[in-house]
Amino acid sequence: MEFALLAPVLFLLLFGIIVFGLLFAQNLALSNAARQASRYAVVNNSNRTCSDVVSQALDSAQPLVTLTAGAVTVTRGATSSAATNACGTSTAKPCTGSQPTDNIYVTLTYDANVLLPVPGMGNTKRLIGQGVFRCEFS
Q1: Which of 48, 63, 80, 131 is 20 to 30 A removed from 42 (C-alpha atoms)?
Q2: By residue range, what is the domain housing residue 71?
Q3: According to the 3-state scheme, what is the secondary structure of the chain?
Q4: What is the pLDDT of residues 41-58, one digit of tens each?
Q5: Structure pTM?
């Protein structure tokens, strides 16, 4: 009888832990992919175009997160609030023409599906990863 009363609470807690773990792993993959792509953009950037940076971000997020190119934003500026689009075209080079204080910001956005129903979470959760590196090699 006691187990029948506590089982729903126990299963809710167990499923909540599983959902949180999956979302945490996906968020970690996004953050790592964004950091890798921003580093890729600034190191030896004379050969790196915006399409290369986007491809690096998409590849780095696999297999936990499947992104589209529209989920990747590459901006450049001294601060994230002052940063502007660094990729007007796919052949643009992110750090070309940058100031000594400019950073490259790669932001990845992903709407993760919540696999197990947990009250209050909804069906999707927006995850955002951001990587920042200084344009030192331009």
Answers
A1: 63
A2: 2-134
A3: CHHHHHHHHHHHHHHHHHHHHHHHHHHHHHHHHHHHHHHHHHCCHHHCCHHHHHHHHHHHHCCCCCCCHHHEEEEEECCCCCCEECCCCCCCCCCCCCCCCCEEEEEEEEEEECCCCCCCCCCEEEEEEEEEEECCCC
A4: 888 756 788 888 888 888
A5: 0.82
